[in-house]
Give the backbone structure.
Amino acid sequence: GRPDPKPGNFAPQYATTRDYIGIVDKVTGRKLDWFFNVYLYQAALPKLDVQRRGDTLDLRWQVPHDLPFPMPVEVRVDDVVHTVP
């Protein structure tokens, strides 16, 4: 870009999805392909399946094509927040 962008003195630049993913990886310092493979490249979104068995709560991601999806989930139990990987 230019330090003085004004109408007419710059040409638009178009980015691809891969460009966007590269920017996100650079800004976060992490490879988030697992996230984009599910959210950008699949028609169905992941669903968090929650089942209670007595005093136990079972949380599992249902992901199209069983793709890896290690999205952590925060759960509050007795006013204490736990992060479930």
Remarks:
- The first strand starts at residue 47 and ends at 53.
